[in-house]
What we know:
Layout: E1 2-5, E2 15-18, H1 31-44, H2 57-64, H3 68-80, E3 84-87, E4 91-94, H4 129-144, H5 160-174, E5 183-186, H6 189-200, E6 206-211, H7 215-223, E7 227-234, E8 237-238, H8 240-246, E9 252-255, H9 269-282, E10 285-289, H10 305-309, E11 314-319, H11 320-323, E12 331-334, H12 340-351, H13 359-368, H14 370-396, E13 411-415, H15 422-432, E14 437-438, E15 451-455, H16 461-479, H17 481-487, H18 499-504
Parallel strand pairs: 6-7, 6-9, 9-10, 10-11
Antiparallel strand pairs: 1-2, 3-4, 5-12, 7-8, 11-12, 13-15, 14-15
The structure holds pyridoxal-5'-phosphate (PLP).
Amino acid sequence: MQKIPTNSPAPRKAELSLDLTGPHVTPRASAPHRLYQALCHAIVSGIVKPGEPLPPSRTLASQTGFPRNAVTTAYERLIADGFAVAMVGSGTFVAARIPAQASGAGKTRVVVDAPPQGTLSLGCTHIDARALQRFRAFVGRRMRAFGTDHLHYGDPRGSRELRTAIADHLLSARGLRCDPDQIMLASGTQHALRIVLSAILKPDDRVWCEDPGYPAARRAIEHCGYRPVAVPVDASGMIVAKGRALAPTARAAYVTPSHQFPLGVQMSMNRRLELLDWARDADAFVLEDDYDSEFRYDGAPLLSLAGIDHLQRVIYVGTFSKTLFPGLRIGYCAMPEKLIGPVTMARAALDRFPGTLLEGAVADMLNSGAFAANLRRVRGLYREARDVLAATLSTASEGRLSVPVPSQGLHLVARFDPSVDAQVAAQAKAAAGVEGWLLAETYARARPLPGFVLGFAGHPIPLLKASAEKLAKASLAALRPSHKQDTHGTGTGKARKPASARSRSAG
Ligand SMILES: Cc1ncc(COP(=O)(O)O)c(C=O)c1O
């Protein structure tokens, strides 16, 4: 344990105790990361309290022997994760309200607000401090230049400037060539699906959906009065032959071919071609939800389905919810030319056009390179978070959870042996008090596999690790025969859907 002097003008402790070797520190991690973990630990365990100053980077560097830029990077990450704030001219301080408490180990009571989303929840992202700063600056500049552009009704597809920036991004990131006229902005994926489907379908039309799949898409499809058809998924993605057998005359298919949600498989080229053949035969459209392709950790992604099809029958749907943050509520679709008229009319009928105030700042992010730089930085963080979560779950569950490490995306799937009762996962999750989903919640008709769908992005590593340990231990407890006997006493070993899952994934 090293004692680090602090020197801010605010009332302060003479020294900061920093434990750089405890179990909260990953031994072989980078220097900034180990410092970050030690500082996080000092904050969440109350050694340094909300509002207190952290030592100047130079002091901390000389005390710990870490390079000064390692300290600066660790501080930047603390700030980005909400553990600290920077005050110009005064230094770095522990945030008045810190995001969450990793354990109850601290002697001092720490003021902790419930995090907006619990640990392991899906839908969290991390935006790098530098990218956030650029975004704020772009928003500020755009607001100062606020003028007549924003005072009128606009194009139902959204600003041409942002649509052009998205078309450039799609070409460079996904090899998808399209004209800005083919792009429409929407307030997220479900909104884009609703608008497009309302332009191409009639009430009661059937839509193939992956089973297991993304419940929010299935709900949006149902809510609009269309009929989702649950088509099973295997290691090559949606089983097109089953779709043909179940509903050959469906009018559309919703798929996540690059990284199937939730299982993470990549749709094989054969299946992609089969799907496109079916769409041609049935005069149907394919909605490709490419929600997390920007986060590829190993190897190059397959070409998008829309790229293979040259935007003839495929509507490509993307979102800034993962690449920037969900609160933006900006997603988009790239559509076949022949759909521009009907989709634009559907949009105008639904909600006229998207809000204009943030479009310019998002275009600035894309055009300035700040978007790409943010992706590069957070990709590294997410890869590390993925590895920590997978390794902790696997080790702490003594191998009872199998955790394939995904090569893409912001979530992973942790599965029990298929013979385990699905209730075991529900009990473990409830006992551990973590967020994330039960794998069963993503199934519509197929027999659910027992396990969890867990988010690793946007959660500070120490909290991720602590939550993974809790969940793994609760899983071991739920697997014990006496526990099973006490709670439902059947021991049949058959996977059943928990009641909560049945209601959430109905349809
Ligand atoms: C499969 C899938 N598609 C899309 C999204 C993004 O949705 P939205 O753009 O509505 O925020 C998510 C978010 O978790 C998702 O899991």
